[in-house]
Amino acid sequence: MKNLLLLGSFFILKFSFAQEIVPKLDRTTIKIGEPIKYEVKVKYKEGDKIVFPTISDSLNYHIEVLNHRLDTVKTDGKSEIVQQLELTGYDAGKFHIPAFIIQKNGKDLTTKQLEIEIQDIAVDTTKNAIFPIKPVMEEQYSMRDYWNKYWLYGILALILFIIGIVLVVLYIRAKSKLSTKESYKTPYDEAKASLKALDAKKYLKRGEQKEYYTQLSFIIRRYLGRVYHFSALEILSDDLVKYTATKQDILPEDVQKFKQFLFDADLVKFAKQQFDDSTTSLHRNWMEEFIERVKPLEIPENEDLQKDHVTGEKYKQFNNN
């Protein structure tokens, strides 16, 4: 009798657990790729511990999971946890949705295994003509497509192009300056060309005496430095006058006029002195005459000669660099 009671209790308990799980399909037949909804409900009360199985992206080889979620529903004072799955399949035939094991308060509850039928899609070849597979066709690119794909290379190429242009311009300018410098065969040629270029700038007509005297001083200092091979641009005015006074081919009156010119130039450059047109003209004319008087002669082919055998004039060597 006792065994019969135990057996009866076991079936009652099993039946009560089975009533707590209600698996359901919205339909049992679908087309290939068509979604179907599968739902499992578990009743619970406060304090119950319920664990649903982990759902992957497929239930088996033929059935795939498109989506899944868990919801809590309360109706008429009763609470249920609902697991909803959205399923589909891509093979025609009948397939089983496997049973799930859900734990409730440490006990396993198993759902029923359900069956679905997946039907193939019939194609009416009389209405829809079947065409052969087309060959691989080349994609047509627009200018926007090329820009979106190669814009970085385009910007780099543009930067390199601009750098190239800058380098070419700098090279041409440097070469032009070098050619201009090399075109002056002698210090005399360079000084005469510099005076001509200074006159063309017309500083005096614009009242820019400081710039005029600065460049005029540079011309005579560079000329003397090249003729007599010393750093005329780097020494003070008084020292420059003393040095030129030691040269036998420079007249004493030129030394005095040179001293006066340097003194007046320093007044203009550093004391903002302004001279009248007659004074500036006097300085300009004397300088050109002075350059003519100390003009070096060309070096003879025989470098051992000290003077011209016809005119008796002495030669002065100069640095062409």
Automatic annotation (TrEMBL):
Entry keyword annotation includes Transmembrane helix: yes
Residue intervals passing through the bilayer: 150-172
Superkingdom classification of source: Bacteria
Keywords (A to Z) from UniProt: Membrane, Transmembrane, Transmembrane helix
Record flagged with keyword Transmembrane: yes
Protein name listed in UniProt: BatD protein
